[in-house]
Amino acid sequence: MDMLGVFAEFENNLRRDRQMEGIRKAKAEGRYNGRPRSIGSDQRKKIIRLKKEGIGATEIGKRIGVSRRHVYRIFNE
């Protein structure tokens, strides 16, 4: 059983190395930027406008269709 564990660990290390190499290559080519934003700049502007009108984060989230936490993130940017 010990030999199987050694081979499994070796295989896992090879896989991790290949993955990290691919990530480095993608970053160098500008293709690895993380997750895209869930709302666009138009919606961001609308959230800020609604805040200036005095509407609360919960209500803004309901109107826009995002969570209250997401609204607070935009407030803090």
Explain this structure.
With 77 residues, the protein is an all-alpha fold. The chain has 2 domains: 1-34; 39-77, Arc Repressor Mutant, subunit A. The protein is 71% helix and 0% strand. The protein has 4 helices and no strands. It has helices at 2-28, 41-52, 57-64, 68-75. Helix 3 crosses helix 4. The longest helix has 27 residues, at 2-28. The N and C termini lie far apart (53 Å).
Tally of separate domains = 2
Number of E-type strands: 0
Q: How large, in whole angstroms, is the Cα Rg?
A: 22 Å
Q: Architecture of the largest domain in CATH?
A: Orthogonal Bundle
User: What is the subunit arrangement here?
Assistant: single chain
Summarize the amount of helix as a percent range. Answer: over 70%
- SSE arrangement, N to C: HHHH
In short:
With 77 residues, this protein is an all-alpha fold. It is 71% helix and 0% strand. It folds into two domains: 1-34; 39-77, Arc Repressor Mutant, subunit A (Orthogonal Bundle).
